[in-house]
């Protein structure tokens, strides 16, 4: 019998999560706006399906009343998470999503009391952003409880999906963000660069980005100063720096339509995902000059997203949850990522 709903199941990541769920013996309801795509996906896997937009409140609430939790996969989440979150409050349904957007994390955190009063858990970011990096941050904090500074970085090998590129393009004018003395602070795009030793003989130039951990790692660790870096190709780094000056132009309707139209459909193939992997690195330091490092290797990002999201789903459905706003490591500790990537699909 279905016990959770995947909304946006026909998108690249939603479809991958659906496939992995079936291979792991789960039977979700698949849902989304596109009747043809959702029906075809449901028939392929022998699943129940529902078709509705988030504006169709009665259909949305009816679908959520059928399940214990939702795994929300329809981004950009800055445009969709509020409606789904409010529906979860109305229906008493646990909320998870695969966002990486700082504003969404902060909105969910701000609504944590409402979620707790409703007896539901709200956990945005149950995918690659932010499960592995959140667990890495907790490991660093546990090793250095006096830490006041946290730096995280990741290097992923593999291409990104249409949906991820669309969200990045939509936010191209937003600049960067870090945490300073506990507060999220805007900084220019590509604000800082630094050389990072990811281990395995991989040393790369990293650049600051407004990654989800700028929000979530503060709740997970209490560390007040946080920066997140990634490795970007030289062309992407140049565009990030250029956006400091022409960001408003890049955000205009005509330019956005042009840029969005250039994004290729779909995402990496199974073979590409199998070849890929992601290296993560973290550093914590304190005011006394103590400093520690930690490294982590996980599968390619979309594979990690599917496995992490479904491990968290399994735990929620088993009753292992904490009402209110939670980050992955707040609810499940720093070893969650190990359990997630140890799952085996067919």
Describe the structure.
This protein folds into two domains: 4-127 and 303-341, NAD(P)-binding Rossmann-like Domain (Rossmann fold), CATH 3.40.50.720; 131-300, Dihydrodipicolinate Reductase, domain 2. The protein is an alpha/beta fold. It has helices at residues 12-23, 35-45, 57-64, 77-91, 102-110, 112-118, 131-143, 162-170, 213-221, 234-250, 253-261, 270-275, 301-317, 328-332, 336-341, and strands spanning 4-7, 29-32, 49-51, 69-72, 94-97, 121-123, 149-156, 176-180, 183-187, 193-199, 202-208, 225-230, 277-285, 291-299, 324-325. The relative contact order is 0.17. It is built from 15 helices and 15 strands. 44% of the residues lie in helices and 23% in strands. The mean pLDDT is 91. Strand 8 and strand 9 (183-187) form a beta hairpin. A seven-stranded parallel sheet has the order 3-2-1-4-5-6-15, sandwiched between helices.
Short description:
With 346 residues, this protein is of the alpha/beta class. It is built from 15 helices and 15 strands.
List its traits.
six-stranded mixed β-sheet, 2 domains, about 350 residues, seven-stranded parallel β-sheet, Rossmann fold, globular, Dihydrodipicolinate Reductase, domain 2, alpha/beta
